[in-house]
Structures are given as C-alpha cells and as structure tokens.
Known about the structure:
Layout: E1 5-12, E2 20-29, E3 32-40, H1 52-58, H2 71-82, E4 87-89, H3 92-106, E5 113-117, H4 118-125, H5 133-139, H6 150-168, H7 173-180, E6 185-187
Parallel strand pairs: 1-4, 4-5
Antiparallel strand pairs: 1-2, 2-3, 5-6
Amino acid sequence: MPLDFTAIDFETANSSSASACSVGLVKVRSGVVVDRASWFIRPPAGHDEFVEWNTRIHGIRAQDVVGALTWSAQLPDLIAFADGDALVAHNASFDMGVIRGACAATGLDCPGFDYLCSLQVARKTYQLESYRLPVAAMAAGFEDFKHHDALADSEACAAIVMHAARRHGAETVASLAEAARVRLGRLGSPRVAEPVR
C-alpha cells in the first residue's frame, strides 16, 4: 500500500470542541499532494460564540461564517474528501475531538477513521527545541506558511508526515506509526474485521 492519507486541521470559535468554524483538508496519494480543500463552518447553536482569544489566533469572525454550511450539512463533504483515508493532524487529539464534539452537538454518528498524530511522529523523528507546527514543519522543509489558517496548517502537517515517512523508510501511514513507535488511533466506530474465507 502506498503512502495515502488526508491531512486535516480545524479552527474553532471558542473552547468548545463542537465550535469548528473552519476546516482545511489535504489529500496525499503515493506520498504526493494531489488535492486541497477548505471552507468555513457555521458552528451549531450553543457553540457559536466567537471569543476574542480564538479570533485573535485565526482571524475568523462570526460574520465570516454567516453564509457557511453547518456541521451537519458539510460533514458528508468532509467524509467524501477523505474517501476512507487515515486522517493525519498535528496534535490529533484536538482535531479528532472537534469531529467527536461537533457530531455529538448535532446528533450525528461520528464517522470512522484511523488517524495519526504528526506531533507525536515529529517528536520521534526530529531533535527540536519545540514541536509546535511551524517548527516541526520547518524541520520537514516546509516554511513560511500562514499558521492558524486551516488549509496552510493541514499542508504543513502533510509535509511533516511525508518527510518523516521518507526518513523512517515507511511506505504507509501504518508502517510510519510502527517505525516511529506511535499509536495509530481510531475515531468513531471500530474497524470491522474482514471475514475469514
């Protein structure tokens, strides 16, 4: 199997994991970026307050998402873009928490995806003073991007995983996880075992 995955990054309106207001997605096929997508998300009622701290970080305001699709309306697009890939995110517990939280807040089943944390991979691949996304991305040769822009962050995350895979001689996300000695996580429903024939 080749190095196929979808890198993902969310920005949130506030401290609620259900408050996704932007998503960036980068599709990698055989270790090469082949597609990118990003869009605003209108957070669900009760999770839709834009707090100054978050806005200062990513620059997104309530008026920016007024015409955006809700989480319920855009989740099928996210699932379709990922197309069964393993998801990769920097500090994946945050981004997977956003998917879980937004699904819970809107009464949707959480989609099933394997996922890998590029932060954990970076810690096992590079010797750095910090493993924040801009620093780890620089170690992977990906520089000068707009941090906290969801698409730019997902591109940086993809660059880290592709570079780390080359360093570890890994050809798949699963073999990279094994080589770097990090856990491949599971979001949503557990993997269904293939029937024995």
